[in-house]
Design a protein that fits this description.
Length: about 160
């Protein structure tokens, strides 16, 4: 009976220490690079700026880095780790959101607006630079049929005769 209780206590102690042992696992250089890369892509959830968790010194960011290290030690990919944190904290946790769905629209709208504005500006400048329609050719018929032009010419000729 005593050995069953002792076994239970030892088992409970090992289970209690399991997260600490998992967090202190030795990572390979590739896994350490993965922790830094993924950590640099996650925003500190309590910082005001867009500070990545690798540069934040608060306990939450340190805990997130430990979680990344644990998942990296389990062999999870960057995307799987990002999905874990996105499901926990939402899309805002990512410093570089995925470019798909509605996010793709938000990434593409400024580019479309820039292209549309450039196209409008080009068309506007072409219209302003386009020569005006050519004037009607003076064939003599229009001069004599235009009553105002005939009257002005007559007045000019009269004033020229009045001057010495």
């Amino acid at each position: 009976m005593l050995s069953a209780q002792l076994t239970g206590v030892i088992l409970a102690g090992l289970l209690a220490c399991a997260p600490v042992l998992a967090a202190n696992t030795v990572l390979t250089p590739v896994q350490q690079q993965q922790v830094q890369r993924v950590g640099a892509g996650l925003r500190c959830p309590i910082c005001r700026d867009t500070l990545p968790i690798t540069e934040s010194g608060n306990d939450i960011s340190k805990g997130m880095l430990r979680e990344i290290a644990a998942q990296s030690a389990q062999g999870k990919s960057d995307e799987e780790i990002y999905q874990f944190f996105t499901s926990r904290y939402g899309d805002r946790i990512r410093l570089n959101p995925q470019r798909s769905g509605a996010n793709l629209l938000l990434w593409g709208l400024p580019l479309l607006a820039l292209l549309g504005g450039g196209a409008w500006l080009l068309s506007y400048l072409r219209i302003r630079r386009a020569p005006l329609q050519p004037e009607a050719q003076n064939t003599g018929d229009t001069d004599e049929t235009d009553p105002y032009l005939t009257e002005i010419r007559a007045q000019v000729a009269q004033r020229r005769q009045e001057r010495p």
